[in-house]
Amino acid sequence: MPESPEVISQTEPHKLSGGGNAAKAVVVSIAAWLVPGLGHLLLRKWGRASIFFLGVAAMAVAGLLLRGNVFTPGGDDPFGTLGFLADVGSGIFYFISRSIESAGPDVSRAAGDYGTRFFATAGVLNLLCVLDAHEIARGRKA
Amino acid sequence: MKSREEGKRRAQPLMLTHLQAMLLFALVVSVAFACLTKRTVADRLRYTLWAFLAFVAVAVVVGWIMYPASR
Predict the structure, then answer these.
(1) Which of A52, A102, A142 sits opposite B32 (nearest CB)?
(2) Angle between helices A46-65 and B18-37 (to 10 degrees)
(3) pTM for the complete prediction?
């Protein structure tokens, strides 16, 4: 039985936009992870893009300048693996961390311990921003 | 003579007190949460203020609760 014109007009745009949005959402998510705020920038959310970039950058750079520990992959410690997953969430800041603070971590002081938490927070915040950008790109959020 | 490694170990580019570190953390996380969860500027400002004060208040209260353990 053929669908009535009303049903087609309600369902067709959803199907068409669903496929396109899925591919766009993947691109936006990768961009948002790699450079904090870039996903929102691609979606023309200028305000949120700049706030997320500044927030993640502030936490990541402060964490590194406080000489916090940046976790590397491949450790036997499950907490180290969780730390790596949190740290790598900060995208570009993870990969240039040694350029920002070349002396490396010093967790023998409280400041270094704070730095470790700051950098992990930057990563987790950026992952939340990636989710936000993904949901906007899929049209589930304004 | 100090070695290069020793110099690196002693370098501390950024010094923050415990309070300053906590305030920075509270501010950045409050702003990020507000932008992620609220839509209008007024709602975001209100939520940022509320979350920031909540972070600071909880940290001060927990700090005082833990104070006897530090003595």
Answers:
(1) A52
(2) 160
(3) 0.83
